[in-house]
Design goal:
This protein is mainly alpha-helical. It contains 6 helices and 2 strands. The protein has a two-stranded antiparallel ribbon. The longest helix is centred in the last third of the chain and has 32 residues, at 122-153.
Amino acid sequence: MGEASERRELPSASFVIRRDLFARIGPFPIELCGDTLMSYRAAACGAQPWFEPRAVLLHNQLTNRRQFLTERYRRGKDYGSVRPRLQGWSRVRAIAYTAAPPLILAVSLARAIRHALMTGHCLMLLWHLPVVVAGSAARTLGEAMAHGRSCWRTS
């Protein structure tokens, strides 16, 4: 959710790209954060990733709670292992992100609330808040674990 705009990266459940650009930057990575990696590749070729909130996608997750939380954790871990490398993080920044999951979770939830207010989906967010909090917490934990591992790998 959010406003239509250029973005540094597009972590999403869907990703649309022109065929000629895909031929230059493909194939699609196998990591869970493949859309983020493709965003960086596109930007490196001069194509600015664009977020379009009017695009509608139904992404039906047919999973139980445990599978959902495991997927969110794995997605965070995958993203956390890729993001520092792509953005050239220092060890200090990785340590800070490792120690900051409560703050990162609060920021994530604040963004969800802001987007719900902007789009008129406050009741929907309130109804789904337990799932949003649990999924965001699992993702944040996975990302923090990956950042922690990257701190020790760097010499």
